[in-house]
């Protein structure tokens, strides 16, 4: 089943473990989250994306029962967080990478958490190994780098082996190797059937990690769907020394084709992802081909188009003129 959806027609994912429905949060007169609806499917990594101040953390905090919605619901397994009988075993969350007692070692931090939920110490060591900080486990968390704190937060989230994971900006502070590690790690967890929701204000960072995306701006949903849907219909880019002859040949073969000046001289866009077919048509027409590749929608550009369009322009961004008043 396709997860195709627009801002107006939210995803209805069968068996969704996370369901946000008409969710709003006001702080005084300020609407931080505005009638937001989306669902998150098991076995998939969903990116929760939006610029700074868009309302991502507030939404995640409502899912975790830390902020009370003004209107609507944010449910996990069909329940408010407070209704979950085994919360740590249901949902693991890492909201901030800084909330560790600085004087406590990483291992002790996890042990305290484990003890209060009757989770054996063996699980703590297993997790420290799994997130790649066994050597740092006996050092005080106060001396951890941002990346190490992220890994410790991830271990804490996984302590109860929950089937839902909610991670706020998990790649913050990770170096490129750490980001690659995180990507593989989350992919492995998703392959086990876990439901994973990760927030980020940087699409480029999560683009290769997520299967689905929910994009918000100013507290409102602006787009959601699978990454394939975000990329749009497949197209081919072919570069030739005779664009006119190639376009004619492609059109005669029943393919939509036209010049694509944005891609430079001699570029032709073809409405198919089937590169073999395009190459065969060019060969049959005797037209030289200098380049042939799949043309994808630039997601970063799409993200900026969506989040910086006039109606979605970031309300938190004051002009210097306004700031000076
Ligand atoms: N307790 C609060 N009281 C008043 N305003 C708040 C409160 N919490 C959040 N806000 C405001 O709500 C808006 C959304 O904040 P939120 O932290 O949810 O955004 P975000 O998308 O997570 O941003 P970032 O990417 O910077 O973390 C911001 O303008 C923020 O200042």
From TrEMBL:
Organism domain of life: Bacteria
The keyword Cell inner membrane is assigned to this record: no
A Pfam family matched in the record: ABC_tran
CDD domains in the cross-refs: ABC_BcrA_bacitracin_resist
UniProt cross-references to SMART domains, sorted A to Z: AAA
Any GO MF annotation of the entry: ATP binding
Keyword set, alphabetical order: ATP-binding, Nucleotide-binding, Transport
All residue ranges annotated as the ABC transporter domain in the record: 18-243
Keyword presence, Membrane: no
Family: Belongs to the ABC transporter superfamily.
Protein name (record): ABC transporter ATP-binding protein
């Amino acid at each position: 089943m396709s997860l195709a959806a627009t801002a107006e027609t939210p995803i209805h994912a069968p068996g969704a473990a996370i369901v946000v429905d008409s969710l709003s949060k006001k702080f005084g007169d300020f609407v931080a989250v505005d009638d937001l609806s989306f669902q998150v499917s098991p076995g998939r990594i969903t990116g929760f994306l939006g610029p700074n101040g868009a309302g991502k953390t507030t939404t995640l905090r409502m899912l975790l029962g830390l902020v009370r919605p003004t209107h609507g619901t944010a449910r996990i397994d069909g329940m408010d967080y407070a209704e979950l009988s085994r919360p740590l075993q249901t949902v693991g969350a890492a909201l901030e990478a800084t909330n560790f007692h600085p004087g406590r070692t990483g291992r002790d931090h996890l042990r305290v958490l484990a003890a209060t939920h009757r989770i054996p110490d063996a699980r703590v060591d297993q997790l420290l190994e799994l997130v790649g900080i066994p050597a740092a486990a006996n050092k005080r968390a106060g001396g951890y780098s941002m990346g190490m704190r992220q890994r410790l937060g991830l271990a804490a989230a996984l302590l109860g082996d929950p089937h839902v994971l909610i991670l706020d900006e998990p790649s913050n502070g990770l170096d490129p190797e750490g980001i690659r590690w995180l990507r593989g790690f989350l992919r492995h967890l998703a392959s086990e059937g876990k439901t994973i929701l990760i927030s980020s204000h940087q699409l480029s960072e999560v683009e290769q990690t997520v299967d689905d995306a929910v994009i918000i701006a100013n507290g409102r949903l602006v787009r959601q769907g699978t990454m394939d849907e975000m990329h749009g219909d497949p197209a081919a880019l072919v570069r030739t020394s005779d664009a006119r002859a190639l376009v004619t040949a492609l059109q005669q073969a029943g393919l939509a084709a036209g010049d694509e000046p944005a891609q430079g001289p001699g570029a032709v866009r073809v409405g198919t992802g089937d590169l073999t077919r395009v190459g065969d048509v060019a060969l049959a027409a005797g037209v030289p081909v200098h380049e042939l590749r799949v043309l994808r929608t630039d997601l970063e550009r799409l993200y900026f188009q969506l989040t910086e369009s006039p109606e979605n322009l970031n309300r938190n961004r004051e002009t210097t003129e306004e700031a000076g008043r």
